[in-house]
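ingest -> fold -> write
write: protein_1
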Amino acid sequence: MRWALSLLLSMTLALNMAVAAKLPNVEAPYLKTEPYAPGDLNRVLYFFSYTCPFCAQYDSQFYVWGNSFPPNLILEAVPVVEDKSSIIYGRAFYAAKLTEPRKIAIFNSYVYYLIQSAGKDPNSYLTYEEAARESGLRVTEFKQHWEDPKNMEAIMEAHQRYLHYRPRVTPTLVIKGQFITDPDRVTGDYGLLFKLATGLLARIHEGTADRDWFGEVMKELEAESRTDAQ
């Protein structure tokens, strides 16, 4: 058992060293932080914005990555609610999530398309109603959840998380309330961002019940790193 833990730790450190080697003369690839709430210790927070082209491009990959997590770890998408002008993004996201959480990634893809490709108004409710209809949500329920007090509570929570973690760009990842990273910290390399985030998760989980899962992921990443180096 001890050799397995030592192997996992050495692989994590090797990955972090590989990340650092690819990032000469730039800032650290992640920041340490403290959790906003105890529940964040079981989550990877994914801060996003519907007006962000990189979020639109990589949104589905974040969900695929999150779907591979162990049962006690959750990827939670958090809309950036910085001020009054961005409340509508949170309102749309949480109305869709309250209506049909399993379809949230599909809903997001339609919102990104309508705003960024079709030129629809991001400040209009009708844009999000169209996205709800196209993604197969029950529009009547979507309208109800738009006004739902639970929606307002979720928006306030998103705003408080924004104030606590201060994501400077979108997308931003907060790893179990302990580390913050974003594409700018890895020179815009999203493949490296996912590797770094997985390495940080492995670092946190070293010696826990999830070590086997993260150990397998780290082996795959190490194999990819060796292939890249050849």
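write: protein_2
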Amino acid sequence: MLTAKAQSYKYKRGKYRVPEVAKAAGPQQMGATGDGSYLTLFGRNWAAILNKKTQQVELYGETPTGWEQVPIPPIAHPTRECRHLALAFDQSARHVFAYEVGEQIFIRQWDALLGEFVYRGPFVGVDPVLINDAEVNYFVPDSDVLLLYLTPDRKSLKMRVQRQLYAIEHHIESYATPKTLDILAPLGYQWQAEGDGLNVRSEMYPVYISEMAASGAVSPPTTWDYIPIVLIQNLNEIAASGAVSPPTTWNYPLVVMVYNGGVDVAASASVSAPVQWNYYV
């Protein structure tokens, strides 16, 4: 694994050639869902490479002493024809691959009903990237694998999701000039897609508060802007509360408190007003 860059194929990006190495957070052990927690399913670093020496896609998991190769079935296409390898992991604790072959994108994912890997696609597009959005807000139950890619003319950014079996194409942005897409990474309750001439961030993901009986609070900064945040509080106890305190200066953009009271007898959620400057609703 230490020589992955030297052993991997490389795809052309302008005047540079980029190693076919993809990284993602994944399970402690392949196929072992355990307690279903974030640490169990996404607490280990993984990497995949298109190895030009072995002519295989190879998967490695990080260990305290280095990287160990984990055996996986070969992909359905010759590696010399594949480019822009992408890696993610889903709730089944199995890897998901995406790659491009001749301006068509193929997805390989685990099918729990069949007990084997299956393919989705091909979809017309280039520069596929993957992420499981559990890496974005650390909430596994509602997580999904996202596939982002560009149209062949590189002037539109598209998305498909595993929950829909990648069958529905969602439009994100259009561009006047061709772009490239290289990275899709978690960024503090947002994901960020980056490339040459392209930088796109998602909307803010919610922050889930799942204690049995407690309060949810967000402390303010003392100066400058307060970044938008969403709190979701699901209360199943007799009484509880959720509060957001205001900043003391500058602007206070949107704060959303989503409250699911269920059958509670008494509960409350409140947002205090700022003491000065502007308050946006």
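write: annotation protein_2
Helices lie at 4-7, 38-42, 134-137.
Residues 216 and 242 are 4 Å apart (CA to CA).
pipeline exit 0
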